[in-house]
Structure formats: structure tokens, C-alpha cells
Amino acid sequence: MGKTIIEKILSGKSGRDVYAGDIVVADVDLIMGQDGTSPLAIKAFEAMGGERLFDPNAVYLVIDHSAPSPTESISNLHQLMRSFARKTGCHLHDIGSGVCHQVMIESGRVVPGTVVIGADSHTCTYGALNAFATGVGSTDLAAALITGKMWFKVPPTIKFVCHGRLPAGVFAKDLILHLIGQVTADGATYMAAEYVGEAIGALSMEGRFTIANMAVEMGAKAGLMEADGKTFDWLADLGVRGVEPVSADPDAAYAKVLEFDVSDLEPQVACPHRVDNTVNVGKVAGTPVDQGFIGTCTNGRLEDLRVAAQILAGRKVKPGVRLIVAPASCKVYLAALREGVLAALVEAGAAVVTPGCGPCVGTHNGVPADGEKVISTANRNFKGRMGNNKAEIYLASPATVAASVVTGEITDPREFLK
Amino acid sequence: MKFEGRAHKFGDDINTDYIIAGKYKFKTLDMRELAQHVMEDLDPEFYRKISPGDFIVAGRNFGCGSSREQAPLVIKYAGIAAVLAKSFARIFYRNAINTGLPVIECDTDGIETGDELIVDLAAGEIRNLTRDAIIRVKPLPGVMLKILKDGGLAAHIKKYGRFNFGEGDD
What we know:
The structure holds two protein chains of two kinds.
Chain A: H1 5-14, E1 23-27, E2 30-34, H2 38-47, E3 59-62, H3 72-88, E4 91-93, H4 100-105, E5 115-119, E6 132-135, H5 138-147, E7 149-153, E8 157-163, H6 172-183, E9 192-196, H7 198-201, H8 205-213, E10 222-224, H9 229-237, E11 256-261, E12 268-270, E13 278-280, H10 281-284, E14 291-294, H11 296-299, H12 302-312, E15 322-325, H13 330-338, H14 341-348, E16 351-352, E17 373-376, E18 392-395, H15 398-407
Parallel strand pairs in A: 2-3, 2-5, 3-4, 5-6, 8-9, 8-11, 9-10, 14-15, 14-17, 15-16, 17-18
Antiparallel strand pairs in A: 1-7, 12-13
Helix pairs in contact in A: 2-5, 6-8, 12-14, 12-15
Chain B: E1 2-9, H1 16-19, H2 22-25, H3 31-35, H4 46-49, E2 55-58, H5 70-77, E3 82-85, H6 90-99, E4 103-106, E5 116-120, E6 125-128, E7 133-138, H7 142-149, H8 153-160
Parallel strand pairs in B: 1-2, 2-3, 3-4
Antiparallel strand pairs in B: 1-5, 4-7, 5-6, 6-7
Helix pairs in contact in B: 6-7
């Protein structure tokens, strides 16, 4: 019987022939923790009697959620991570390195067929590299630090077949918001998503990461893609060559196959307070906004900053509106700096903050005021997400956010991209 | 395991940001302090309404969103004995079992806030004393029962030094 991508990967890593529904204990290639979850994982590691890591070179700790630290209590948690890294010899990416997921996909360690667990729900981002990557909690993370293994229920797979090409001014973010709106916030719970079709193939790797990143917003365990020339080019730029792709068999069994034609898709906006509350931008155009945010593991990459700069170059953020930009990583920051993208954004009035999660999780760097409306490129718009439960968050593509801060209201970016 | 307490009812898609907001959870490992903010964005008075042993009862997809293990921990430290929901988001479900918070999949339509419940995991049923009804419970997967029985995943790994689900189980 044929296998899906995830059935193949988990068969390989468990040494058994497994299918959806089977329970496996699989080898884990890479382990990642961030500053919101690692401190608890370190405590759990100690409670388990852990002394050394199964492989220090496989473990990455990243300080990104509150970076640099805004309070003394968080500084002490960061110190705990630094001291654990010194003691165990694992990798530590300190403040300014960027969002953990961007650090991982730039590391050259995540390749087709890799199994990665991360103590952050958006670990599913790396599925765009044809790897099985999933979010876990701190105790699961600690167990893997010691054993190098993790137990999984092999998930059934939903295949999303995306036909056609995205029209001009419509981006990967619009596509994934649309898919989530269609299947809802628990439409893929316990399942893996496989994204295939012409529209996915036409996306850059950066756009594919945006799609895989939000698989968890439909409840999925993983968001996987096939490897192609673009995948190999991404890895070759990181010095990685000769990797073997993992493809689904033609006779693999899927829980569901959903077909979409994206040729007429419009820019999408997810309205407060649910990610699956998506509408065409026209439906909410004209809604006044107080703050825009461009960044995060969803949309803080070079391509995202470029399109924002394209719209904002020679224009100004409307007086009374704020724009915060957080490049997804140090590497993205430098590239955007060198090609003038950041200069264009700053000249337009943007406030650029340290690479990292920025205001997305409400710890610092741009908590909105009571009654304010924010338009953001992040992946979650839950009430209180950005630190104030009396604010409202709209999610959209970087282009839509850039256009909206120019006019001061939610705006169709296609008017600015002609 | 058998618990008796009152129900506190919530809706569908209760995410981990609602259970414990990001602005608090990154600050400290003191779960007693964090527990005072449980569900605060939905009901600022919720923590004060809980009597030890009460239940959170919800609809579909409880615990969706972030992977923060602080979510099941604050529920436990707030004095909640178990969470009953029609379905759970997968990371929350694992985290709850790993940290020893019972999570129970069942039909919650017939339960309202204030109902007196007896949750009997061994018998696989919930008795709603207020409405004189019996609700069947979906059993836990074998692997998770084993982890719960060992006292959570930390105790399991400490005991065996590895994942040990026995023959035929893995």
C-alpha cells in the first residue's frame, strides 16, 4: 500500500512500516526550544534526572519571544537558558538572532526527511522543506533531549490541491488565510496537511514557509510539501547538497483531498478574533487602523519586507498611524539593510525593532492601546494576543498591511502595485 | 480516578492565549502566580469562581493555538480537576497528559455552568447530578493511559530512562 509523505518519514525514523493511526516511537533529528518554553523544559529535564543531551549538536535554543529582555524576571529566565547551553554544549541563538523558526530554516540542518520537534506551535513551518516538523510542549521536549526520540500517532493526511496561479497583488498569505477560512480552525486537527499543485509550485520558498507556518491554525500536526528545484536551491544556498526528497506514493491513502482554484483569489483579511474569520479585503476596506505590524515567522522574510518597501517607497505612513517592522532574522535584517529595503521603510516612518517575535505575542515592542485596531502579518488574532484584550487584530499579507498604514484604513494593496 | 465538582462552561475553540495570556506566561515559572490569570481575557473573575475540584467544560477544539505547557499547568494550579470537551487541540492534549491534568473527550452539550458532576474515569462515564444524566467518555489511547498511570511523562522517563510503552503498545 502506498504512503503519504509523513507515513514515509515516520516509517524511516521508526524502522517499521507504519500508516495513519499507528503509534510510533521515532528518532528525532533536531530539537528546538524558545524562551517562552525552554525554561519549563529545563525544569522538566532536571525532574527526569537528565544530565546530558542525547546529542548537543542536535539541540537549538533560541531567545526570540522577549528579545532583548523587557523585565528582570524574563532576564533571569534567559540566564537559565544561557547557563543550560554552556553546561550541555547545545546551540544557543541569543537576542538579535531572529525568530526561532527562521533561525532553523536558515541553519541548513532541516532537509527533506528530517524529523524536528520544537517547543513552539509554529514549528510546522519547516514542512515546506519536505521535513516532518511539529510543535510539542516543554515536557515532551525534555524527554527528547534525553532520549533522542519522541512518540507520535501517525496522522492521516489532508491533501490541498491548489490549481492555477495567484493573481498579481495576491500572495501566499492570502492563499493560506483563504484555506483556513474554508476548513476552519479545527478542520485538520490531528492530521497532516500536504500542499500540492501548480499554485504551490509557483511560490518562492519564502511563500511556502508562510503556508506551512499556518498549518497549525487549522489544527494540523504538520504542513508538508514535496521537494523541488526551489527546495534544492534554498538548501544549496546554505551549502547543503545531495539530499534525497521524500515523495508521496501515487496510491497513498488520504483522509480528504480538497481542490481549490486560486486564479481569482482576492487579498484576504482575517477579522477579530479568529484566524478562520476570513473575508475578501473589499469587505472590510475602510476600517480605520492605528498600528501596522510587519514581521513574525509567518511574514518577516526578505520577500515580505521588499513588497512592503515597494509600496511605502516615496510614501509616508499616515500621521497618527504607527508601523512596526521586525525582520524575521539577523540574516534577513542584513540583507534588507544592504539592498535599501529598510531605508525605504524607515524613511516612510516605520519603527524597526530587533529581529524576533516582536509584538506578535504581546510581551513587548508594541502593545496596542484600549480600543485600537492593528493590522498585522502575524498568524494569530486572538483577543489579547498582542497584550491588550481591548484591542482588535486583523491579519493580512505584508502588502495589505503596507497599503493600510499609508491610507490609515484597511486597503486593497492592488491599488498600490499597479 | 473519580472526581466530584461543579462545571464551568466555555464555548468552542478556547485557545491557549485565552487560558493564559502571553503577556503573563513568559514572565515566570511560578504557576501559582500565573494561575490567578487563568481565562482572564474571557472572564476576569474566573479564578475567584473556582472551588478546588471543579471542572472546565467546553465545546470543540479546546486548547488550540500555542504549544505553551503553562496552559494545562495553570488550569491544574487553579484547582481544576479535569477538562471536559467535545474535542481537544493536539499539542494541548499531549501537554495535559504529560503534566497530569486529566482531559476527557465527551459530548458536553447537556452540561451547563453550575451543574454538579461526578467524573468516573475507571467506569468511563460522567454523572450529571443536576440533570440526572449519564454521559459516556471516549477512552484515552493506551500510550497516554500509561503516561498518566506513571504520574506524567517526567516520572515515566525518570523511571525507565526512555519511552517504554510495552510490547504491542508501540
